[in-house]
Design brief:
Number of domains: 2
Number of strands: 6
Distance between the termini: 33 Å
Pfam family, one: FA_desaturase
Structural class: mainly alpha
Subcellular location: Membrane
Shape: globular
Pathway: Lipid metabolism; polyunsaturated fatty acid biosynthesis
GO biological process, one term: fatty acid biosynthetic process
Number of helices: 12
Largest sheet: 2 strands, antiparallel
Strand content: 5-15%
Radius of gyration: 21 Å
GO molecular function, one term: oxidoreductase activity
Amino acid sequence: MVSLSTTLKPLSPFSSLVKQHKISNSNAFSTYRTHTSTNSGFFKGVGAVPQKKHTFVAVHEAPDEVDGSWRIPFSEVVVVRKRQAFWERSWSYWDVCRFLKVAGVHLLGFLAPFYFSWSAFRVFLWLLVINGICITLCYHRNLSHRSFDLPKWLEYLFAYGGLLGFQGDPIEWVSNHRYHHKHCETERDPHSPTQGFWLSHITWIFDTGYILKKCGGQENANDLVRQPFYKFLQRTILLHEMAFALLLYFFGRVPFIVWGIGVTNVVRYHGTFMVNSVCHIWGTRAWNTADFSKNNWWVAAITFGEGWHNNHHAFEFSARHGLEWWQLDVTWYLIQFLEAVGLATNVKLPSEAQKKTMASI
């Protein structure tokens, strides 16, 4: 594995008093400012935990680029303009197809005021919740992290619902997410805000070649690749999406397409994307994780609990993200229900000892 060099730049105006140095590390990112603090950010939540506050920056093999870096407002995240995911690179056929699909969905969303009906609005609400839960419960907590087990028929049903959420097939989604956790806040992270807010929010999805080059293929999701059902979904995803759109058209014509495909997916896209961008920039921190992850209550409210992101990075295996009683986590409530009726088993939660270790100063 190629060794990466990390150059550190102090944020203080007394930069000349701070010694710069290099660290060689294949997962290169380093702490260069530490002080005791309560949770950081705009959002001072209930029960702020005193802790050491860390600032990290991932700058690789380019010490001159540190001079052009800047800090995202009201956060400790330093952006180093290193990676261009939209311009100044070659686009593969699949990158173009994905861009056209995402752009098309957004264009449909703009037509919403002209095709409003209450029945179309109800379809929007139902699909937003159903497909969204399938992504958070199945794609994320079940398949990506194996936080609990489901009977195969139910796992596949939830996975198919996630597929109709227009966020890709389960193998690709899980692979990208596992690489994010493995390389979080480094140059190999598929979507770190240290490489730009918009890259972490959306433009990274149009650069599949970068992930393949820096992280590797989908061998990190071999548990799904070995299952014929998931390989079938991966090969035929476009057919399923087209069939779903035709079904909506059959029942409600253009208004169902506009609200069921356009508005629903625009809202769901950006809800998911905000977990990758906003929840690594603004919010509160309850745990000493080696990344920028934050708990953000309003992102949690619109993503069925996914916004408790610092909790998630502290305990990736946990089926529950809202670890406090007041932290709304709709996905966890559904997992609890499935466990109560005997459908969810081996549900994983952090122990008190693990919490104590992660909360230590």
